Amino acid sequence: MTDSGCVGVGSGGDGFNRIEKGVLHTDHHARSEVPRLFNILKSDIWQHLNAVQADDQRQALQRALRRARREAGLKQVDVAARLAVPQSFVSKYETGQRRLDLVDLLAVCTVIQINLSDLLALFEAEQKKAIRNEA
């Protein structure tokens, strides 16, 4: 500590020069890095939030597909037989272990006799239900 009450931190390339009365003083380079570091952090937070939102949306789609199948009075094995795939294929897309591409999704919709717009309505209902359950 110096006579002025400053603690020398040293520049050491990190841009931080001293702490004076509890305030960290930096050189110009360090101050210019703050916005860049903030933007990186903000970007990481948004990526995390988007990933969480995408997971929630996938789960809502899984529930909508399961609900549509059940409302059609079909078991997983029935859907699998009509699609000419193993029953595990249906189980995996309903539990999130497998993702469906648009072609597969349309085939599933045909088998369970629901049009895509009605499936989307079920999807939106499942999303709203999940939001209400979180509150």
Structural summary, described in words:
The structure is a single chain. With 135 residues, this protein is mainly α. It has a domain at 52-134: lambda repressor-like DNA-binding domains (434 Repressor (Amino-terminal Domain)), CATH 1.10.260.40. It is 67% helix and 9% strand. The chain contains five helices and three strands. It has helices spanning 28-71, 76-83, 87-95, 102-111, 116-134; strands at 6-8, 16-20, 23-26. A three-stranded antiparallel sheet has the order 1-2-3. Helix 2 packs across helix 3. The radius of gyration is 27 Å and the shape is elongated.
> Termini distance?
52 Å
The share of residues in helices is 55-70%
Largest sheet: 3 strands, antiparallel
- The structure class reads mainly alpha
> C-alpha Rg, in Å?
27 Å
Proportion of residues in β-strands: 5-15%
The average pLDDT value, as a whole number, equals 79
Unreliable runs: 1-16
